[in-house]
Write a structure and sequence with these properties.
It contains nine helices and 24 strands. It has 423 residues and is of the alpha+beta class. The chain has three domains: 48 residues, no CATH class; 173 residues, Jelly Rolls; 170 residues, Jelly Rolls (Sandwich), CATH 2.60.120.10. The strands form three sheets. Strands 2, 3, 4, 5, 6, 7, 8, 9, 10, 11 and 12 form an eleven-stranded antiparallel β-sheet that branches. The protein has a seven-stranded antiparallel β-sheet with strand order 1-20-17-22-15-14-13, with no helix packed on it. 38% of the residues are buried.
């Protein structure tokens, strides 16, 4: 039915609210469209995706899947830690990046290199990272939550959990990358002839009698001690630009509804393959309607509940729900907005395979186009056009009311616990 009277609508909405309270979302809109789902269901999954069960009436057309949860991936468990990944295999639209979530508690990610650059970001605890560049210059640093690193492609490096252990993200600039595609020093050494190793290092073959027979990957490490105790002076000096970033300490762009911190080549010279934004959105606010002109957007959700709608040519539009530990994706040029639909602060990363961060605001586009052009197309009033903001405002607040939460799903808030994000 297209129309129902007000009393029927109120009764239907009350029934829908009761079903939601009982933990049973149903594919029925308050306008009467839809019907009960009486077949087999995964209710826990449905509760996490209310806007997939009942898409907004403004959704239309087909858009590829733009969401995958790390909670649905295979876990590789080793002495000293674990890892899991989201690649093009899990999220087929992801051409630009693959993501690895790793824990070292405390342990060591063995010395290795790969053909893709690696951008790291610490979620919990502390990590010590080391690297040696092509000129023999070295690097060592400790990273806390909100900090991280960049290792350019083929630069050998290692990661070690500090005394308290750590969990961190690693972003690789190729969607089909996998942790199976690394050059590990243990594998390299174990597959070299003994006489070749002896000649290379100028020592007796017996020195290599105890080499591991296969890849170590992650191993127990214990407390590495102070950074001073592990610092080695290279005869060629240190890397010219630090491989460590401090995204959490970047001066934020502050809006009424939250903040955004931007890290790219302009304030992190060592990095040319990843531009990042750390976004914090208060309840009742949203990341404004915008799009990106240079690259696809890869997202990682750290805290809170989000709803994102993406618009693509066609026309097409689709809405997704995101929670802590979810990966999101927006194809280049796709108009989108991200709403905080929960009761706590929403925190997530926007990541781009680019030297520089860039976005285009719908509000600024309208504000800086001649009003006669805008009025002839959209029939907007002079008063509206007079008040549309010309200045950048990445996060906007709903006026007059607090945006209602989509559901009451408990969130995983262990990420960024050191940051006291819930304040």
């Amino acid at each position: 039915m297209d129309k129902i009277d007000r009393h029927m609508k109120e009764r239907l909405q009350k029934k829908l609210d009761e079903l939601k309270e009982a933990g049973r979302p149903e594919p029925i809109r308050s306008d009467g469209c839809g019907a009960l789902d009486l077949g087999p269901r995964n209710l826990k999954l449905d509760e996490l995706n209310p806007d997939m069960i009942v898409p907004p009436a403004t959704d239309f057309g087909l858009i590829p899947n733009l969401k995958f949860s790390l909670g649905q991936t295979h876990m590789t468990i080793k002495p000293g830690g674990w890892s899991r990944e989201v690649t093009k295999r899990e999220l087929p639209i992801s051409d630009t990046f693959a993501l690895v979530d790793m824990n070292l508690s405390p342990g060591v990610r063995e010395m290795h290199s790969h053909q893709q650059s690696e951008w790291g970001f610490v979620l919990v605890g502390g990590a010590r990272v080391t690297a040696v560049d092509e000129r023999g210059r070295n690097f060592i640093a400790d990273c806390k939550p909100g900090e991280g690193w960049i290792f350019p492609a083929n630069i050998p490096h290692s990661i070690q959990g500090l005394k308290e252990g750590c969990e961190f993200l690693m972003l690789f600039d190729k969607g089909d990358y996998s942790e199976d595609h690394t050059f590990s020093i243990s594998e390299l050494m174990s597959h070299m002839p003994m006489d070749v190793l002896s000649a290379n290092f100028g020592c007796d073959e017996k020195e290599f009698a105890n080499l591991p027979e296969k890849e170590v990957y992650i191993t127990d490490g214990g407390d590495p001690g102070t950074i001073e105790s592990q610092t080695i002076e290279s005869p060629y000096g240190k890397v010219p630009h630090t491989f460590k970033h401090e995204l959490i300490n970047v001066e934020p762009i502050v809006s009424d509804g939250g903040t955004i911190r931007i890290l790219d080549h302009s304030n992190f010279p060592a990095c040319t393959t990843v531009a990042a934004a750390l976004v914090e959105i208060e309840p009742g606010a949203m990341r404004e309607i915008h799009w990106h002109s240079n690259q696809d957007e890869f997202q990682y959700y750290i805290q809170g509940e989000a709803r994102m709608t993406v618009f693509m040519p066609g026309p097409k539009a689709r809405t997704f729900n995101y929670h802590a530990g979810d990966v999101g994706y927006v194809p280049v040029g796709g108009f989108h907005y991200v709403q905080n639909i929960g009761k706590e602060k929403l925190v997530f990363l926007e990541l781009f395979n680019s030297k520089h961060f860039s976005d285009i605001s719908l509000a600024q586009w309208i504000a800086m186009t001649p009003k006669e052009v805008v009025k002839s197309v959209l029939n907007l009033s002079d008063e509206f056009l007079k008040n549309v903001r010309k200045e950048s405002c990445p996060i906007v607040k709903y006026k007059g009311y607090e945006f209602p939460p989509a559901n009451n799903t408990p969130q995983n808030v262990r990420y960024f616990k050191d940051f006291n994000y819930k304040k």
